[in-house]
Amino acid sequence: MLTVRDLRVTFSVDGRARVRAVDGVSFDLERGGAMGVVGETGAGKTTLARALLGLHPTECVQGSVRLDGRELVGLSEEEWRAVRWRRIALVVQSVGTALDPVYRVGEQIGEPMRFHLGLSPAEAWARAEEVARRVGLSSRHLRAYPHQLSGGEKQRALLAMALACDPDVLVLDEPTSGQDMLSRARLLDLLAGLRRERGTGLLVISHDLAAVARLAERVAVLYAGKVVEMGPTEAVFGDPRHPYTWGLVHSYPDMSTARDLRSIRGHPPDPVGPPPGCRFHPRCTQAVERCRHEEPPMVEMNGRRVACHLGGLQTLLRAEGLRKVFLVENGDAREPLEAVRDVYLEIREGEVVALVGETGSGKTTLGRMLVGLLSPDGGRVVLEGRDLTAARGQERRLLARRVQLVPQDPFDAVNPRMTVAEVVREPLEVQKIGTPQEREERVRSVLRAVGLPTDPEFLALHAHELSGGQLQRVVIARALVLEPKLLIADEPVAMLDPSEQARVLNLLKEIQVERGLALLLISHDLALVRKVADRILVMQGGRIVEEGPGSRVVTQPAHEHTRALLESAPRLRT
Amino acid sequence: MRRLSAEARFGLVVLALFGAVALLAPLLAPYDPHAFSGAPLERPSRAHPLGTNDVGHDILSELIYGTRISLAVALAAGAGTVLIGTLIGGMAGYAGGWADRLLMRLVDGMMSLPRLPLLILLIAFLGSGLPQTILVISLLFWPTTARVVRAHVQSIRTRGYVRMARLFGGGHLYVFFRHILPQIAPVVAHGLVVSAGHAVAMEAGLAFLGLGDPTAKSWGLMVRFALNLPGLFLTGRWAWWALPPALCITLLILALTFVGIGTERAFNPRLNRRWQ
Questions:
Q1: A353 and A270 both lie in a single domain
Q2: Which residues of chain B neighbour A405 with C-beta distances below 8 Å?
Q3: What is residue A544's DSSP assignment?
Q4: Does B1 fall in a domain?
Q5: Is the CB of A373 less than 8 angstroms away from the CB of B165?
Q6: Residue A337's pLDDT band (boundaries 50, 70, 90)?
Q7: Which residues in chain B have Cβ-Cβ distances shorter than 8 Å to A401?
Q8: Is A397 found in the same domain as A252?
């Protein structure tokens, strides 16, 4: 019904700089269908909504918007009148200013009908009452002036106004913003009902992912004026493919998860001078050289479309059937102990995965195999498509830059004869990276990143002169100095006191977001890791017995071992 | 600086004295030890404080120049022993597995051999001379050092920072020289001192048995020549001819042993506690 092709909206600022607020958006909306458009503030969502209603000066809008085959772009203001409100209506975001304070609400709801359908004031009022009832307003509300209504009621009045002429397409710009949860739920019910009963097509523009998920079966993700991912809502939100979608979904507050909010590193780009190439590349965790220069095309892949050179979120590390058997002395015999049995796992770019299990479940052994410290007895580890298990020599050395480990005991992990500066610099020396000055600078910057001083006195300290928390930060700094893509942290806070635990964990999380690295957090403490983990793997007896999103594993544990771990998690009050 | 025990300080002082004597030998010695500076078998006098030997060499000068030989052998053979011992022990401890088993069986084999007869056999085969002496001592005495080094390397190898260095991409040689060798430096130093002591004793023994370098007049050789004189003990000549070199040998070994004990305390904190 509504066909949008390559829609572009360009503004000129100060008559010179050109801002392309919407850049080549295409989608289709069927009769009775619903489409969501999500994205951060400034992504061009509202500009898109207004463009669909012909509310921008004609010269600003290029491309094509067809409603039942009729081209809307380039219509004169006169021609728009027959279309706006009757065929396509908009519920604007700014509730406060959209209603005229000197007219009664009922009059304003009736106005489009008088104007577009030629009804008399009395007929219009009567129909306004009918429409208002549908959106949950009574005649009392209609007789009131806008300032006498609450924000939610005003929103309903605007909705009633948009519905007055029974449009084919309803564009809703942030319909749920500023509403409390209960009126939001009622509004969503109302819109869903409307769609069902009248076949009204909905275009829901919102940063409220849950509202979009509830209303729309298809969704487009907008970033800096471009659609980066589009497809069935369930698929896009449930299994995001574009790194931006992934970040957006994971920064959304969700009742079902115990995790703290994640944020996407950096800020949305300045619309006046968007970055070249893929516009998301400065914030993307997996950007490659090509992303900096070349704009990614939209590519169709399993029922959705993604604009990413790499075909969407990459798998960073994959373990395939890892096995490790230790021989344990038992009297005279040596008995095999299967520490890790047939473990498959995947870690994607920028993801925080927690590996949880009790002592002796094989977590550390698995972690060591994943970084290549221990060679597996079976299976293999694939890091960015290269076999880590088989890598030797120079290849192995280069792979070491991509994955690093923060071990459990910082005191054991640092040579007692080396100073802080020497410890943090060591990986750079081993890898022969940079000149001595550059190394010095990198050591300082990475120490600053972990919140440690960089004065010469501190740099000359030895391990035994530092506190546990400081030393763990030094170890983290050393792991970061090679700028790995994946950090495996084996019980990184287990040796620290509780307040230091929280600080170091927050630091890890911050660094993870800031540097865009993936984090595998190995821990026995489910209560602690659920705060940061996007995904949780539960390990028992060398096997992964449960795997799922952090929220699901914590709220609906499927395996009895997970339940046992949850029940034994510390509680201050029962 | 760490406080040194009285023994260690005594040892260091004695070593320093011997060192000074060796270095300043031409200044200290009244005569050339190979010059016929007096009549044979003179008794101690103002001109020859320790008298002369059977061919008229000044005994004091012989003693002073002998310090050079004894110390050179101690240093060279000690270093050779420790070098071989550290290499083999380090390799066994670091590599582990079959390489460790193989090397340690070699060590066991070496240690079960009677060393002195073997020493004599080897010298007889290689010919007597200072380099041969040093080589043979090094070849026979490394197993002790190897064992100690291996034990230490084995424990350091499992430390987290060694694993981490491998993880950064460091090769085995890098790990060994950067992280393991500095940690075992005290052990190696101790081995050096102890082996030096052994070397002194061995060299003296070989020289005494007539298997030393006949041209390098060491303390052992002096004792041998003195004992060759019939009636040495009857005439009382032993007191200024045989006794001084024997005392020097004993003192040097004692000093090295004391320093050895001192260096051992540097890496063995348990000893430290007991000795406090």
A1: no
A2: 164, 167
A3: E
A4: no
A5: no
A6: confident
A7: 169
A8: no
When pLDDT is cut at 50, 70 and 90, the band that residue B2 belongs to is: low
- The answer to whether the Cβ–Cβ distance between B161 and A404 falls below 8 Å is no
B147 pLDDT tier (thresholds 50, 70, 90): very high
What does the pLDDT look like over A487-537, one tens digit per residue?
999 988 887 888 888 888 888 888 888 888 899 999 988 888 887 888 899
Q: What is the CATH number of the domain that holds B125?
A: 1.10.3720.10
Determine the Cα–Cα distance for residues A540 and A557; give it in Å rounded to an integer.
14
Among all residues of chain A, which has the CA nearest to that of B180?
A415
Let me know if residue B61 belongs to a domain: yes
pTM to 2 decimals?
0.76
Alpha-carbon distance of A111 to A122, in angstroms, equals 11
Residue B178 lies in a domain: yes
Answer whether A413 touches B (CB < 8 Å): yes
Residues A234 and A187 in one domain: yes
**Helix-then-strand count for chain B, H and E:** 14, 0
Q: Which structural domain, as residue segments, surrounds residue A446? A: 411-483
CB contact under 8 A, B174 and A414: no
> Does one domain contain both A396 and A518?
yes
pLDDT tens-digit series, residues B220-276: 888 888 888 877 777 778 888 888 999 999 999 999 999 888 877 766 655 554 444
Residues A465 and A326 in one domain: no
Let me know whether A237 and A197 are in one domain: yes
Q: In sequence order, which residues have a C-beta less than 8 Å from that of residue A571 and are 6 or more positions away?
A: none
Across the interface, of B160, B174, B182, the residue whose CB is closest to A413 is B160
Domain that holds residue B242: 6-275
Domain membership of residue A398 (yes or no) is yes
Q: Are A325 and A337 contacting, i.e. CB atoms less than 8 angstroms apart?
A: yes
The pLDDT value recorded for residue B276 is 40
Burial code of A492-521, b = ≥16 C-beta within 10 A, e = fewer? bbebbeeebbebbbebbbebbbebbbbbbb
R_g (Cα) of chain A, nearest Å: 29
**Would A114 be classed as within a structural domain?**
no
Which of A426, A428, A476, A491 is the best mutation test for B, with the most CBs of B within 10 A?
A426
Q: Do A263 and A277 fall into the same domain?
A: yes
CATH number of A174's domain: 3.40.50.300
Under a CB-based contact definition with an 8 Å cutoff, are residues B24 and B61 in contact? no
Using CB atoms and an 8 Å cut-off, which of residues 370-409 of chain A contact chain B?
Answer: 371-373, 396-398, 400-401, 404-405, 407, 409
DSSP letter (8 states) at residue A524: S
- Is residue A140 in some structural domain? no
Interface test with B, best of A430, A439, A443, A491 (most B CBs within 10 A): A430
The tens digit of pLDDT for each residue in B76-128 reads 999 999 999 999 999 999 998 899 999 999 999 998 988 888 888 888 888 88
Q: In chain A, what residues touch B174 (CB-CB under 8 Å)?
A: 430
> Would residue B54 count as lying in a domain?
yes
Task: Report helix angle B181-208 to B115-126, nearest 10.
Answer: 70
pLDDT given at position B274: 45
As separate numbers, helices (DSSP H) first and strands (DSSP E) second, chain A gives 23, 22
- Indicate the average pLDDT of chain A: 86
Amino acid A51 reads A
- Find the range with the poorest average confidence among A443-452, B36-45, B166-175: B36-45
Instruction: Indicate yes or no: CB of B165 within 8 angstroms of CB of A371.
Output: no
The answer on A562 and A456 residing in a single domain is: no
- As for how many domains chain B has, the answer is 1
Q: Which tens digits make up the pLDDT trace of A141-167?
A: 888 898 888 877 888 888 888 888 888
Q: Which of A373, A409, A417 sits opposite B167 (nearest CB)?
A: A373
Residue A142 counted as domain residue = no
Number of domains in chain A: 3
